[in-house]
Write a structure and sequence with these properties.
Elements: E1 17-23, H1 27-34, E2 47-52, E3 56-60, E4 66-75, E5 78-86, H2 91-112
Antiparallel strand pairs: 1-5, 2-3, 3-4, 4-5
């Protein structure tokens, strides 16, 4: 007699998301801010892992997630920041980190767009 048992997939889907935001500021200005852990909000507890000019930063968070940040110039004093945040524990962590990035981008916007 043959018996069958449904098995869980070997690879579990690990939640992640991508967020893109445009700024009325030079890409170099945002790159400097995002690559300096001292300029990050105190509650983020981000640790900068990799910085590659002209616009690549990778950071790790206390919850063991990490984010890759790419800053691209759009010319004429405008830029775009794309964040790919990965290795999140669950959908609640996704929503919490989305909220963090939206708040952080608002803070950055208030500093660079005057």
């Amino acid at each position: 007699m043959t018996s069958w048992r449904l098995r869980e997939p070997l690879l579990k889907q690990i939640p992640e998301f991508e967020l893109t935001e445009r700024f009325e500021a030079e890409a170099s200005q945002l790159f400097v801010m995002l690559s300096d852990a001292e300029r990050w909000p105190a509650d983020s507890i981000a640790r900068v892992l990799v910085v590659r000019a002209p616009g690549y930063v990778q950071v790790a968070f206390q919850d063991m997630s990490r984010a890759t940040i790419e800053v691209s110039s759009l010319g004429s004093g405008k830029c775009e920041v794309t964040v790919n945040h990965e290795l999140l524990a669950d959908n609640a962590a996704v929503e919490a980190q989305k909220g963090f990035w939206q708040g952080y981008f608002k803070q950055i916007r208030s500093q660079v767009e005057r």
